[in-house]
Amino acid sequence: MSMIDRLNRVMYGANHSAIREFSNLASKTPGCIALTLGEPDADTNPAITAEVAKAFENHETHYIMNNGTPELRAKIAAFENKRNGHRFTADNVIVTDGAEEALFVALFGILEPGDEVIIPTPAFVVYEEITKLCRCRPVLMDTADDGFQIRKDRLESLVNERTKAIVLNSPNNPTGTVLNRESLQAIHDVILGKDIFVVADDVYNRLVYTEDCHSIMEYEDLKDQRILVQSFSKPYAMTGWRMGYLCVSAELRERLELLHQFIVTSTPAPFQRAAVKALDTDITDYLANYRRRRAYMIGRLDKIGLDYPRPDGAFYVFPSIAKFGMSSSEFCTRMIEEAGLAATPGFAFGRDDHIRLTYCYSDEVLREGLGRLENFLRKLESEGRND
Fold first, then answer.
1. Can you tell me the distance from the alpha carbon of 123 to that of 175, in angstroms, rounded to the nearest whole number?
2. H, E, C per residue of 270-311
């Protein structure tokens, strides 16, 4: 037996991210345009990056508190309270190495082997993969037939004595859908009073194009069950900084902080000061750009003739490719090879009849990319007529 056979068994069930795989394939294809990664094309605001230099000048290069500096944790609590009406204090906050560490700490901290986690799909693949790494069962709830919303009776049918959590992502990656009040109320009514946590991955909730955007975190009677996951990456163009945070009850924080401390000790000390500055940074221009690019992309898709759920947040569109009669992997592979355009196949999110397009790229890239998409689809349609 080789040493590779001595690995933790759950590692054999883990999958590579299709987002990264198709982005890498695009990078190896000369001239290919990639609309794959959910990464803002803008650089981090210079006012934020300048805070790192100040930190070095002040010799802020030593160990800090595991959960983050008192200043940053208090700032996060005040930010969430002012913007979203929460009642957090610094004692409710853990500053994490991005939202993915926050998700891992949250799920690993609440799950025991054999537990079940309900994941409404389409969904970001990390929820399912972390659940499996915790030796638990992901229960995928397809929402496509319900307009990508949550129906109470369908959710109730999946809840049993093994259900430990439900993971929500609104605005959603990959659809851009914002859960409406009816969906949130349905979730609230199903889990209230049960030993079920709700993990709210709200990393896109500052990138919204509708006035009617709410979160399950608004329900104060769920305060002991709710876990907020947030990130600095998307709203502040800070993807490479790997800064995020958890907001939970003080009692739960005392347990989860142990996991965080043994995984990363803390996030980098100089970045803490920059994160404080980020929370005071105006993102109006970023949002205006995304709104305009969203309008352009969906306008082009309408003319091309692809159906998609209306994206009211984030920076993704999730068009259907069902009419072309091929898997999303085959579709995206052919599009790279034949059209020089990369998208993310929908199977990565639980829908093999869709692809994900990202519009956080420059206007020039979007124009050229969507032109290549249109030409590729016309080619497929011509092939279909000749069969």
1. 9
2. HHHHHHHHHCCCCCHHHHHHHHHHHHHHHHHHHHHCCCCCCC
pTM, 2 dp: 0.94
Q: How far is CA 178 from CA 122, 168, 214, 333, in A?
A: 13, 11, 8, 30
CA dihedral (150, 220, 311, 138) in degrees, to 10, reads: -50
Tokens representing residue 361 in the block = 């790229």
308: left (phi over 0), alpha (psi -120 to 50) or beta: beta
For the chain, list the domains and their CATH numbers: 3-44+283-386 (3.90.1150.10), 46-278 (3.40.640.10)
Question: pLDDT digit string (tens) for 313-347?
Answer: 999 999 999 999 999 999 999 999 999 999 999 99
Amino acid making up residue 230: Q
Q: Which two tokens stand for residue 135?
A: 């030796």
Burial of 26: CB neighbours in 10 Å, binned 0-12, 13-18, 19+: buried
3-state secondary structure (DSSP) of residue 319: coil
Residue in 9, 312, 292 with CA at minimum distance from that of residue 132: 9
